[in-house]
Specification:
The complex is a heterodimer of chains A (about 220) and B (about 450).
Chain A lengths: L1 E5 L3 H13 L3 E5 L2 H10 L4 E4 L8 H10 L6 E5 L4 H9 L4 E4 L4 H16 L6 E3 L2 E4 L4 E4 L2 E3 L3 H12 L7 H8 L10 H13 L4 E4 L3 E4 L1
Parallel strand pairs in A: 1-2, 1-3, 3-4, 4-5
Antiparallel strand pairs in A: 6-7, 7-8, 8-9, 10-11
Helix pairs in contact in A: 6-8
Chain B lengths: L2 H50 L26 E7 L4 E4 L13 E7 L2 E9 L3 E8 H49 L16 H51 L3 H37 L3 E4 H18 L3 E7 L3 E4 L3 H16 L5 E9 L2 E8 L30 H12 L2 E6 L5 E6 L1
Helix pairs in contact in B: 1-2, 3-4, 4-7, 5-6, 6-7
Classes of the chains: A alpha/beta (about 220), B alpha+beta (about 450).
């Protein structure tokens, strides 16, 4: 699950990226408004974590333009501005949640999952497709009730596929969604991970639509 | 003591003194007129007798018309009359024993006879000489009785005046009392101007002065409140970083990663303490600006100390820090303020100058004024944002490093207290040149 984190404070950015990585997210971190715009144009993100006081272009402008361009990208505001008026303005402008600094990393992770769930129209935190169950919070996967051990990347890949069961996702898109900027991606990396997943879960779980992509059924 | 009591304390004696002076001068005037009238009476009596003539028979007892003391019927030894005939023989005297001898000439005079003072008038006609007299004592007695009656209204008027003054003073001071109630019933954060009704000029001036003070207080309080808001807001960033750092550090188990996490945590703590220290400095500067004693400080010595103090830090960052010029110069200032100014400028220069760069400090005299310059080879500050960098918590967009955003605000605050001017310029090698002229 790849997130874009727009935060100008280097210390917060670094530690949050580290913390989110530990929770299984892939994080691209930008330090100003223009960089955030650029990243949003080019990258595939599941969610945007947005600080309001960004240099060059402030968070609210980014959010407004995002919503004006009909983007459905979930946005969580993370800011030190705690006035009710600020919170109301941000939520009314299309933010999905509002976190006030200093916030708790665990809470941030929980809220990210909650927003993603709501966005997918689900209430249950666990994703289930047939006999396959994946819990993004505990990072546990079970097949017909039996736990399955997956590597972090395998887990991320399965999570992306299970978020939209039945939908075919291209290899390129999968790559985009599970690798950050600073990660080297081998050309056949996705295929290797998919191969391992099929081996652990059974070949019929993930099907390949030749020339288009992959889906979970 | 209330103004009312104070006014009364001054007004009552003043009124009393005026009353006494007025009474005394009135008494003097009345005394003179009275003498005049009495003299006139004597003359009238003498003329009446002379016109009327004298038949030689002594008069019988004339009964009193009224029996009060002012009765003109009885002379009671206070009035006397004498008549001498043409031959100079005493024909009549109201006094037993004949009374005083005939005066030497006609007219008014004052004599002493048998131990008493008399005002006496002698008139001579063809047939007789008439001599009439009042005792002076009787005149005084009569006048003093008159004076008592004159003073009676004064005695009644004075207390009445006192009550009137009391009421008038109360009425005049009413607006003052209203203002007092207005001020007293105010909430401590209510700084709206006091109401100004139709007030006396003096009180109006006071209310205006109070309103101006309230206005000034208002701006100070707003500035302070905004500073506290900003400070609280700014403290959140390092605290957020610290919280994230602690939480990530707790999750890692690999000793190498743990070391990195702990180093990050330490940097976060350094940053938070730097910020709180800068905040404290700023708060102290604000307090000192109001009540600091100015002393003579050696500018060159403080610059030398700053370079020495920061030399280790500069070396560890690979920056060449040095003093290029150092004339012995003195400036007037609060003891610590100059050190704070130079340290902040030096710290700032070191913070934004990349490794391999240089920071030069110089102290010299220019046009008779001591000048301090700090030159670095960092990225400099673009012209557009130069005026804003002295604002509290302002940080140049895209700045790397974790400054508090207060360094230059502190410098500005100190410079203001020292009456110095700061200017920012581009350095010879593209960095920033800060110039402080005292």
């Amino acid at each position: 699950m790849k997130l874009l984190f727009a935060e100008d404070d280097a210390m917060i950015g670094e530690s949050a990226r580290e913390g989110l990585r530990q929770s299984g997210f892939v994080v691209d971190w930008v330090q100003d408004g223009r960089a955030a715009d650029l990243a949003l144009e080019t990258g595939q993100y599941s969610l945007l974590l947005l600080d309001l006081g960004l240099p060059h272009k402030d968070g609210l402008s980014i959010l407004r333009e995002l919503r004006q361009s009909q983007s459905e990208l979930p946005v969580i505001i993370i800011t030190a501005r705690d006035a009710v008026a600020d919170r109301v303005a941000a939520l009314n402008m299309g933010a999905d949640d509002y976190l006030i600094k200093p916030c708790d990393l665990d809470e941030m992770v929980a809220r990210i999952h909650a927003v993603l769930r709501r966005h997918a129209g689900r209430g249950n935190p666990e994703l289930t497709v047939g006999g396959l169950m994946l819990n993004p919070l505990t990072r546990k996967v079970a097949m017909n009730g039996k736990p399955v051990m997956l590597s972090p990347k395998e887990f991320s890949l399965l999570a992306v596929l299970m978020h939209t069961p039945g939908k075919v996702i291209s290899r390129r898109e999968l790559e985009e969604k599970i690798y950050g900027w600073n990660e080297e991606v081998a050309s056949n990396a996705i295929e290797v991970h998919l191969h391992n997943l099929r081996r652990k879960l059974g070949a019929e779980v993930i099907s390949n639509v030749r020339g288009v992509g992959y889906k979970v059924t | 003591m209330t103004i009312r009591k104070r006014l009364l304390l001054w007004l009552i004696p003043a009124v009393l003194l005026t009353a006494i002076l007025a009474s005394w001068s009135t008494y003097r005037l009345v005394w003179t007129s009275f003498q005049h009238i009495r003299d006139h009476e004597l003359m009238q009596i003498a003329y009446s007798v002379v016109r009327h003539g004298y038949d030689g028979d002594p008069p019988g007892i004339i009964p009193s018309i009224r029996d009060d003391d002012d009765s003109p019927g009885e002379d009671l030894g206070l009035f006397m009359s004498q008549i001498w005939n043409r031959d100079g023989k005493l024909a009549y005297s109201s006094m037993d024993g004949g009374g005083p001898p005939m005066l030497k000439g006609d007219g008014l005079s004052t004599i002493t006879w048998e131990g008493k003072d008399w005002r006496i008038f002698r008139l001579t006609s063809q047939d007789m000489t008439v001599q009439v007299a009042h005792s002076i004592a009787s005149r005084e007695q009569m006048l003093s009785r008159l004076a008592m009656k004159m003073l009676m209204p004064m005695a009644i008027l004075l207390p009445l005046l006192g009550v009137l003054i009391w009421m008038v003073v109360g009425r005049v001071l009413k607006p003052l009392e209203d203002i007092r109630l207005q001020v007293e019933s105010r909430r401590s954060d209510d700084l709206t101007p006091l109401e100004r009704g139709p007030l006396p000029d003096e009180i109006n001036a006071l209310v205006q002065a109070l309103n101006r003070l309230l206005e000034r207080l208002g701006t100070v309080i707003v500035a302070r409140r905004r500073f506290i808001d900003d400070a609280a807001h700014e403290l959140r960033s390092p605290l957020t970083a610290l919280k994230f750092q602690v939480q990530t550090a707790r999750r890692v188990h690999d000793p190498e990663e743990q070391k990195v996490a702990l180093a990050r945590l330490e940097a976060g703590i350094d940053r938070a303490s730097h910020l709180s220290e800068q905040l404290l400095t700023l708060a102290r500067l604000d307090a000192d600006a109001a009540s600091g004693a100015l002393v003579e400080i050696d500018l060159d010595e403080v610059a030398r100390q700053a370079v020495t103090e920061f030399s280790d830090l500069a070396r560890s960052r690979g920056i060449d820090l040095g003093l290029t010029e150092c004339q012995p110069l003195k400036v007037m200032g609060m003891a610590d303020s100059l050190r704070i100014l130079i340290n902040n400028l030096t710290d700032n220069a070191l913070r934004y100058t990349p490794a391999g760069g240089r920071v030069d400090i110089s102290v010299r005299q220019e046009n008779g004024h001591p000048v301090l310059e700090v030159l670095d080879t960092g990225p400099g500050i673009s012209k557009e944002v130069r005026p804003r960098v002295f604002d509290r918590f302002y940080r140049v967009p895209g700045t790397v490093g974790a400054g508090s955003g207060l360094g230059l605000a502190i410098v500005k605050s100190v410079a203001k207290a020292l009456n110095a001017t700061i200017s920012l310029d581009e350095g010879s090698e593209g960095g920033l040149l800060v110039r402080v002229a005292f």
